[in-house]
Amino acid sequence: MLRQNYQQMVSRWLDRRLPSVESLILNQRSLFIAPNMRGLSVLGLSLVLWVAAITYQNNAIMLLAALLMALLIVAIAHTFINMNGIRIRALHPDSCHAGQAIQLPVAISRQAGDSYNLKVGWRREQLQSTMTQITSSDQRVVVSLPTNRRGRLKAPRLCVESTFPLGLIRCWTYAQLDFDAVVWPEVVPYNRIKSSASGDQEGLATGNKGVDDFDGLATYIEGDSMARVAWKQVAAGRGMQTKVFGELVGQSQWLTLESAEASQLELKLGQLTAMALDMNNKGVQFGLRLPLVTIDIGGGDRHLVSVLNALATYGVERC
Amino acid sequence: MLTLAAYRHYCIALALTMLAHYDWLPISLTLPVIILLGWRYMVSAGTIEMPSAWLKHLLTLLVPLLIWVTWGQFLSLEALSSIVLLGVTLKFLEISSVRDSTVVALVIYFFSSTVFLFTQTIVTFVLVLAAFGFTTLALYCIENPSKGVAPNGGWYVTKLILQTLPIVAVLFLVTPRFAPLWSIPLSSQTAQTGMGGTLKPGDISNLIRSSEIVFRAEFASPPQRQDLYWRALVMDTVDNGEWRPSQVFEGARFIRRGEVVSPVVSVLVEPTQDRWLYTLEGLQPGGGRFGKTSSGIYSFLRPPVRATQIKFDQLTQQPRSLSELDIRRLTSIDNDENPRLRAWINDQQAKGYGQQALIDRLLHRFRDRFYYSLQPPLLTQDSLDQFMFDTLTGFCEHFAALTATAARMANIPSRIVTGYLGGRPSGDGSHWVVRQYDAHAWVELWYKDEGWVRIDPTAYVAPERISLGLEGLTAGQEWVASRSAAPWAAGWLTQWEDLNYQWAAWMSGFSQSQQRSLLTQLLGEITPLRMIMMVLVVLLIPMIPIVVYWARKQARPFRFTQYLIERQARRFGIERKPAQSLHALCYQLAKTDTRREQHWINKGNQLQDLLYKP
User: Fold this and answer.
1) Residues A193, A179: one domain?
2) ipTM above 0.85, yes or no
3) Shortest CA distance to B125 belongs to which of A68, A50, A64, A46?
């Protein structure tokens, strides 16, 4: 309870101090610095030596204790300078479906001077990549984040840290990067597309046949989709032939919440996602009609993405 | 993981530290360490495999055995340091993480600091500092494993350590110093050969040949060499021809005295196992607790295992007179020994010589008939008889023993004082150096009206021994020649020893009171505010280059130029409009400030070029 409160407090403080940004230049406001375990043990040794120096009335040991302490102090400045001025920028990531890990690209550079040994990850324990040298030109690092819910992506704070030069002092930032990414709904298998009562299907042709209905083969014409080449026939030595599907080829279909059989909204959205993907694969033109959102009949990858984005963000702000 | 580069630097650091520990580290420890380090080196280089688990266990079990065989115990300083050394060496064989390799650094830092428990010379200090640098370099190499990416480690670490120096100075100056929290007996095998605790003529001492430094003394006003009779032990009991002190530490009173403000002389004693103090007659030590016997022997409460500075001032108490008991004790002598000497004394007394006259006769006899030699014949039965009438050859101990014995036979209370005579001024003349070969023995006789009177019988035999010192007397002899092979070498040697002295005096002398006086000198007075100010000032100084560097990297270009131009423009009543470029502003200025039209046009173009020209 107390711990939760504390974490909330810290997170609220961080939100105020380091709000969500697309790109961030590290400075004394955004950097935190503290000795790590190794640094603390050096500090401990310095104190032990100090006590020994007092006990034995030994000035030489006192000097050595002071030297160790001073080394730590100077290392703080060096570690800070190493991190100061680094620019972290969120790049545009590829979307993914909920349940998959989204790959988030980050560009890191530094205008003046080089930085060394940066580690990047979500939390301190899960630092994923190490970058040995940062220069003025952008370096791309991809961090992977498991997703579990659909919606507009809200990534956790990205931890960028370094213990250069001696590994005794840790300097880090928790950057709230604003990745422009959408997590699409999880693909849920479906049996068939329920036709809605209002008869939304346009251009119905041969009645109830499913989309998967195989109609026959046609000679391959240049420009036909590779996905539809009958590779079995090619392998059997009968030349390039294209699979021709049933009635819906060249036709279009509206997808609505009623098209999915599932009862729950999330599952419905998942099935709609699967349908949209399938139709795009088969080259069927389709549109989406959700309460408050309508996307006109269309085809192609961009159309698919806008449909999937609409499905992903339906009813949620951010995930 | 431990990279080869990091490991190599660790090895160098260890080697340097072992070199600093050279005095006491026996080959039975260094050899296993070198073998294990070589083994691990071949593992790192990929030649051989890591040792198997059981072999590592076996090696670990061998460590206590080796320690026991070498030292016979586990709790002495040497044994403990050896355990640390062997431990860190074995640790190398099982390093598997970055954390492990950092632990090694800590242990080496610690091990190198233990050097100072044994010795604190400049050489060891430099060695330990170098070991410190290499250990830090190893840390750097662990943090930056890939070669050629990060800046060169050696240069970087040097820079780092140089930057620490001002901070070290402040920390050293302001860290609080207390009296020891608890006292730890230091038993060190590196016992220096010291003056013997007893005296028996006929035992030739090796000590007299050693040129080892015993202590150094700094005087308020330059002394006369002949006055420098450094007293250590007062031997007032004789038993079978062997003289020894009746009291040394047992039966000594404890005196506690505050810091001596204006010392007559301050003595820096080299580390030794002996507890007695070297003092001149009529002086007493200050600044601590000491033992003091009725015969005037001062002693440390613990042997000074590190160089220790003691300051002396004038003794304020009057010497007390002897009681009957004292007189009887100080004139007691074995009656059946040395019959010929006793007969001679009786003969002299029969001739009517009084106490003082009798001693004078003896001393004249020394001058006329005796020889001074560092290699006198060995004496056996009734040694003083042999010396007095047969061999006639001896050194200070012989003459002192003979004089003191003769005095006692004539019922004069007598005692032998051992210590050192003279010494030699250092190269720069700031202090005197007293070496083992300055060891000397003389006699004190009690005359009723004069008290204790110092008599140096050796002076009658070999006056140059007193005025020139043993070195002068025996110049040209082999052992002296080895010390000063060539004049230029001797010069360097003296300078080096002077440097060592300054170092040791500073190192051992910087105590709580020293700290306070230095701070007072620096700050005027010691107040918390001034202390904080000093810490801030000195800690901020190293920050200046950092801030300058930072500002240079961060500053927007031409911010200052921009400020200047805007100020000039304001003077002509022109306010820079939002989004107006500097170039445009300069052109506008050129129109207004017609006198400097060309200047502004040039400036505008220049700025334009600098800012936007690709």
Assistant:
1) no
2) no
3) A64
